[in-house]
Amino acid sequence: MGAAVAVLALAGCGAQEDPEPTTPVTDEPITELTIYSSLPLSAGPDREEAAAARRGIELALDEAGGAVGDIAITHEGLDNATAGENGWSAARVSQNARDAAQDPDAGVYIGELRSAASVLSMPILNEAGLAQISPAASAVGLTRQGAGAEEGEPGRYYPTGEGHFARLIPDDGVQGTVLARLMAQERCLRAALVNDGALEPAQLVPIVAQELRGQGAEVVLDDVLGEDGLPPDRVAERAGEADADCLLYAGDATPQAAQLLLQVAQQLGESTALFASKGLAEPAFFAPRSGLPPELGRRLTLTVPPGGEPGSPVRAALLDELGPGAQDDPASRYVLYGYEAMQLALDAIARSGTGRREDIVDALLETQDHRSVLGTYSIEDGGGSTLAEYAVLGVDETGALVPRRVVGVG
After folding, report:
1. Cα–Cα distance between 194 and 221 in angstroms, integer?
2. Is 165 helix (H, G, I), strand (E, B) or coil?
3. pTM assigned to the model
4. Which residues contact 247 (CB under 8 A, 6 or more apart)?
5. FRET partner for 203 with CA separation of 20 to 30 A, picked from 11, 30, 142, 258?
């Protein structure tokens, strides 16, 4: 069973196995609330991003003075990672969600960074009626049906039949459309699409494929890289056999991804256009010590969510508040995601009027024209964000990520 399918299977049954959460019932005014966060802080490839998101969360709460009106707000940061899993753990994610659900003072839950982790916590928090905000999960199926979503999504994540979840960044319907348009602009007619088997990349590729076919291009290869699929050299060989004239890699910045790009460059030649999704936009991946030739990096076009592009004035101003070194943090765009997650949580509590769970959920899902460091957005029916832009990045001769432009989907 592939990683994405296995996670979805777990999510489908998780709500039935979890103990029923408690929801506070009282007529007394709410004077204290806890905002939980669940992030892979101690282990795995996302730990730097998690630490950056936590800094953003704490900065936003500090700026608010630790209160919303007469309600004192505390932040309880939970680690969802284990060394044994080398990253987030299904058991820890589920336990974090249960801990928050059963805390009568819990007001909002910020998490998870990954869609594959979010599908585990979402049913638990939905049954508890606890508002949930994901800073960075982008899989379409969390909030709506459509290209890339699995059968039964998103309903399986909402056992009560009511919403509780909101995401900040545009879903992969936007990213997939932007990537397909960029590929078409490079006259990509025979596309090779490769993903690493994780939930988000696995759901992104069908979106890109649908958009490309609609533009008259042919998808000549659709492969999975890694332990759930093929090794890099075999994927590159198959791309060559299919006579691909461009390649998209959707997945994380791993040694296998680097090997794939090197092998593809050898198989397909210098004229082949290369594209990558947000998971590859990690500065360390392209740094001189990474071993990737500078000329290979310069052939790549990448996409990242709004506010995440290097050189963004909003990003720079916020990172300045964190002090020396923050501007150079490779995971710094996650500071913005964490910051805005807390800002939206505090705003929903304020607009709830009471601080009660059901009122916070209602306020969260009724968010309209919310001005933020990521841009002005509303929360759609289902919990998606109306943000509809992705930044386009390139790689310069030093291996640095450089902004090119922002592409919107209207």
Report:
1. 8
2. strand
3. 0.91
4. 191, 192, 193, 194, 239, 264, 268, 272, 273, 274, 275
5. 258
Please give the order of strands across the beta sheet that includes 32-39. 67-68, 71-79, 32-39, 106-110, 131-134, 165-167
Interior CA angle at 175 toward 204 and 187, to 5°?
90
Domains of the chain: residue spans and CATH: 9-20+30-170+331-379 (3.40.50.2300), 172-304+390-408 (3.40.50.2300)
Element spanning 402, H or E: strand 401-408
| Alpha carbons 369 and 381: distance in angstroms, whole number | 14
The mean pLDDT values, 10 residues at a time, for the chain of 410 residues are 44 48 66 99 94 95 97 99 92 99 98 97 99 98 95 98 98 97 97 97 97 97 94 97 97 95 91 94 84 85 83 77 69 90 99 98 98 93 96 90 89
- One DSSP character per residue, 274-308 reads EEE-GGG--HHHHSGGG---HHHHTTEEEEE-TT-
